[in-house]
What does this fold into?
Amino acid sequence: MLLRYLEKVTLKKSETIKQANGSRIEEYKTIDDYKVQKQELDDQISASIYGASIVNMLRIKTPLSNLEKLLKSKVNNTTDNISKYFIFINEAKYKIKSVNSKGIDIELV
It folds into this structure.
């Protein structure tokens, strides 16, 4: 992994907040910033798994796997599930599709 090609991403957690009038809004709390390497998913295996949505997919990986370790603990956690976490790259919001040792697969929302 070449360190000069790393890009900054922000991990945020969505929280639903109830307003005084009873309506609910979704707010994002910043967890941390990470430097990642981006890779587009264009292989046949990814295409068969994700189907037509592959054009909106990216795989990201951190040099020391810090982000992967953090998100892997959230995969089977019922109280603090991975579905509450989003990754922001240049103001674009991505939801997390899968976490493994190769990296994190994210999809543009």
The CA atoms of residues 9 and 89 lie 5 Å apart.
